[in-house]
Amino acid sequence: MQQSGVPGSRGCALCPLLGVLFFQGAYVVFSLEIKADAHVRGYVGENIKLRCTFRSSSSITDKLTIDWTYRPASSSRTESIFHYQSFQYPTTAGTFRDRISWVGDVYKGDASISISNPTMKDNGTFSCAVKNPPDVHHNIPATELTVTERGFGTMLSSVALLSILVFIPSTVVVILLLVRMGRKSAGLKKRSKSGYKKSSIEVSDDTDQEGDDCMAKLCVRCAECVDSDYEETY
What we know:
GO cellular component, one term: plasma membrane
Keywords: Disulfide bond, Glycoprotein, Immunoglobulin domain, Membrane, Signal, Transmembrane, Transmembrane helix
Strand content: 15-25%
Subcellular location: Membrane
Protein name: Myelin protein zero like 3
Membrane topology: Single-pass type I membrane protein
CATH superfamily of the largest domain: Immunoglobulins
């Protein structure tokens, strides 16, 4: 009876060790983590960015690969639209021919791409897969893309924002100037009605102005006299 109990106790003693090894193995298997937006909304004719980020426990090497695939909303067929390994290779055929651009940076953990001239036919599911050996096991996130026409409400909100940023401040400035001019005009009328007299400084300024006018007229008359004498000589 004692001998039969010893192996059982040893098995129980090994359980914690097996648990530690299991979790360590799970950590190694899922050491590459990928994240992407679950839903992205875009508008016809406006570039759309599909974001994909990753984090790997291994250093980035030239063995790292990135693959983007697309599945239309009305079909189960999947097609490759982008491949990366040391250099970007967008698709040269199919729906996204010459419309996929690389906007990521693998050294920053960014595997994003951009779609130019999108249409409503591009609606569907996009998947981003990254492998960085020895980190090759990972989740594959999916992004649902919805492309629509930009509606009148969106355009109206843009116009309203432009009005707030440009026209309203200009209107406020004009109103302030009008108020200031009105106050100044009212002050001048009040002074004229109350028999306002100019100060000595204002009187001296007026006298100087009159003196300058007289000097200018005198110079003009002298110039005319000189011209007349010159003509009589000849």
